Amino acid sequence: MSTAVVLMAYGSPSRLDDIPAYYADIRGGRPVKQEHLDDLVARYRRLGIEDSNPLNEITEATRAALEAELGLPVFTGMRHWTPRIAEAVEQALATGADTIVGLVLAPHYSSLSIEKYRAQLVDALAGRAELRFVERWGAEPGFVALLAERLVSDRHKHVVFTAHSLPARILDEGDPYRDELLETSRLVAEAAGAHEWTFSFQSQSPTGEPWLGPDILEHLNELAACDVRDVVLCPVGFVADHLEIRWDLDVEAAEKAQELGLRLERIELPNADPAFVDVLAALVRRAAAVPSAT
Ligand code: FEC
Prior knowledge:
Blueprint: E1 3-9, H1 19-27, H2 34-46, H3 54-70, E2 74-78, H4 85-94, E3 99-104, H5 114-125, E4 130-133, H6 141-151, E5 158-164, H7 169-172, H8 177-192, E6 196-202, H9 216-225, E7 230-235, H10 243-260, E8 263-266, H11 274-289
Parallel strand pairs: 1-2, 1-3, 3-4, 5-6, 5-7, 7-8
The structure holds ligand FEC.
The site of ligand FEC has 18 residues, from helix 1 and helix 10.
């Protein structure tokens, strides 16, 4: 058996000029309003992303470290940008691999998230190798321990766990996304000995339908109204410093907190930390060893 890994991420534009095409890809053919596009460009510009994007460097560092740790070829495939998942599959097959492990850099399953990555991977693979796909890993002990370690010194503050929101209709469809997020939050809170914690969604997109709440800005209002003064944010649904962290939390939520007189901190994201790479390596090894592992 010869194995290669396709490591998948959401994808981020490489430069400002890429944003119209990137946003169009996210919208999947549905129209993009000019005001939303302008707003997105302004957010990336405010973060200093003009000709290069640090997120893509973090993903590459993670890929390289995982490859070194596993001693197996690892290729990055992006859901909404380049290199595409299909390109990563071709590179993986070109190594002669007859088994592909698919791993997404997002811990929680949703039909609107992990399932979309899987669909691109399965289409590109077209049955040319056996696929071992990791469906979820939000309760992985190493991941929980890593987040807990970053939280432990702030355990006396009010902890708000966060993750990307999704359209609220997923709950009617029985999607496990919210339950899985709450489970990770509970495990991390327990492991860190957090005294009080809540969960909030973030980063909802202007698609014209209701999204899961509460949104972080609204939630900070609620906490301030309950006389909470010290808040630490612990994102559980993201693993790297991308727009949703650096803008939605570090700029928008920070401004809101200041307005409300709250002290707001956040934990460092795992990024390419060797301890996080070890977690990813354990997931790949398990999937590669057991055909039905998910
Ligand atoms: O460049 C960067 O740093 C941005 C990275 C980025 C990540 C990310 C993660 C998730 N998203 C999820 C769901 C949705 C749904 C829509 C949606 C829209 C956007 C837009 C941008 C964007 N997302 Fe994202 N997301 C990132 C970026 N996301 C940009 C469009 C503009 C905007 O909303 O401001 C709505 C699609 C539609 O229009 O129909 C749904 C989920 C995750 C976490 C899991 C994962 O990483 O895959 C879920 C990173």
